[in-house]
Specification:
By secondary structure, this protein is α/β, with parallel strands linked by helices. The chain has 3 domains: 90 residues, Arc Repressor Mutant, subunit A, CATH 1.10.10; 106 residues, D-Maltodextrin-Binding Protein, domain 2; 87 residues, D-Maltodextrin-Binding Protein, domain 2, CATH 3.40.190. 45% of the residues lie in helices and 16% in strands. The strands form 3 sheets. A 5-stranded mixed β-sheet has the order 4-3-5-10-6. Helix 6 links the parallel strand 3 and strand 4. The radius of gyration is 32 Å and the shape is rod-shaped. The termini are far apart.
C-alpha cells in the first residue's frame, strides 16, 4: 500500500475537523475548503478504512463508533505534528550562524555583536571565521560576510561599505627614522603585505608615483588581522582599514601619519540565499548590521581634505 493511502494526512485532517465540529460546513469553514471537497476527503478515508465514519441525519451528523475510536488519537497526532513544527521553527529562529572573513569577524563583529544581542535577546549567535567562500548549499551558515567587488547574482547582497584605509605603524617604529613626514619615508621601513593592491592605490591617491615594492617580501601577509598584529608589534608598516583599528589609533598604539583617505572597488558585503530573505533572524541581523556599520563609518573614517573630491 502506498504511504499516501496508509497515512492519508489530508483526509485525516478533514476527519478530525468534521468529528470535532460534528458538522461538514463548520469543518469546511475552518479548513478553507468547499463542502464538496470535505465530503470527498471523508469518502476517500472511509474507502481506505472500509468503515463508515459519520451518519448523515437531518440537520446533523453523528460520529460512528469507528469515528469515536479514531478521534482522540488522530487529534493527538495532529497536536504532536504541530508541536514538532513549532519546535523546529523556534530552534531555527534561536541561533544565527554567521560566517565572516577573519578581520571583520575579530575586529568589528566581535566588538559590536553585543548590541545586536541586547536588541534581540532571543537570537543566539554562532560566529565562525572563514577564509574560503561560504557555499550555502553545503555550509550551515545563515549569512556570510564576504570581501569582493560584488554583487553576486545568486545571492541577496547588501554592501556594508568600501572602507577607507591608510598606512599605520607603531609610534616607536616611526620614531626610529625620525618620524614619517612624507610618503617616501615609509620606504625606509619594512612594508607588510606590500604585494596588496591597496599599497599602489594609496600612493596614487597621495599623488605619488607608485614605487617598486618588490624588495618588501619579508611580511607577505594577506589577512589584514595578521598585518595589523605585525604593525602593533613594531615589525613594519601595514595598510589597514580605519574601521578595524579605532581603539588602537585613539590610544596611540598605532599612528596613521597621513590623513588623506584611500579606497578601492573591494567592498564588504552581507550575503545570503534569496529564499532566506524573509527569515526573521536574518532580517533582524541585516537591519542591525547595515545601521551599525554606517554609524561606525561616519564616526571613525577620516574625511578627505576640503580640496579633494568627495
Amino acid at each position: 500500500m502506498k504511504l499516501s493511502r496508509k497515512f492519508p494526512l489530508n483526509a485525516l485532517r478533514v476527519f478530525e475537523a468534521v468529528a470535532r465540529h460534528a458538522s461538514f460546513s463548520r469543518a469546511a469553514d475552518e479548513l478553507g475548503m468547499s463542502q464538496t471537497a470535505v465530503s470527498y476527503q471523508i469518502k476517500l478515508l472511509e474507502d481506505i478504512l472500509g468503515e463508515q465514519l459519520f451518519l448523515r441525519q437531518p440537520r446533523q451528523i453523528v460520529n460512528t463508533d469507528a469515528a469515536k475510536r479514531m478521534l482522540p488519537n488522530v487529534g493527538t497526532a495532529f497536536e504532536l505534528l504541530s508541536e514538532a513544527m513549532m519546535s523546529a521553527r523556534q530552534a531555527s529562529s534561536e541561533t544565527l550562524e554567521i560566517h565572516s572573513s577573519p578581520t571583520f569577524a575579530s575586529h568589528w563583529l566581535a566588538r559590536n555583536l553585543g548590541s545586536f544581542q541586547l536588541a534581540y535577546p532571543a537570537i543566539a549567535v554562532r560566529l565562525i571565521r572563514v577564509s574560503k567562500i561560504t557555499k550555502f548549499d553545503r555550509d550551515p551558515a545563515d549569512v556570510a560576510i564576504r570581501w569582493g567587488i560584488g554583487p553576486w547574482p545568486d545571492l541577496d547582497c547588501h554592501l556594508l561599505g568600501r572602507f577607507t584605509y591608510a598606512p599605520m605603524l607603531s609610534p616607536g617604529l616611526a620614531a626610529s627614522i625620525g618620524g614619517v613626514k612624507q610618503p617616501a619615508d615609509l620606504l625606509k621601513l619594512p612594508l607588510i603585505g606590500a604585494e596588496q593592491d591597496a599599497w599602489r592605490h594609496w600612493f596614487t591617491a597621495m599623488g605619488e608615483p607608485v614605487p617598486d615594492l618588490s624588495a618588501h617580501k619579508r611580511y607577505n601577509y594577506i589577512e589584514q588581522d595578521l598585518c595589523g598584529n605585525a604593525a602593533l608589534a613594531g615589525e613594519g608598516v601595514a595598510m589597514l582599514n580605519h574601521i578595524y583599528y579605532p581603539d588602537e589609533l585613539a590610544s596611540g598604539r598605532l599612528v596613521a601619519p597621513f590623513r588623506t583617505p584611500s579606497g578601492d572597488d573591494i567592498g564588504v558585503w552581507l550575503v545570503y540565499p534569496h529564499n532566506r530573505r524573509n527569515t526573521p533572524r536574518i532580517k533582524a541581523f541585516r537591519d542591525w548590521i547595515l545601521s551599525a556599520v554606517a554609524a561606525d563609518r561616519a564616526k571613525i573614517e577620516p574625511r578627505a581634505p576640503e580640496t579633494a573630491a568627495g
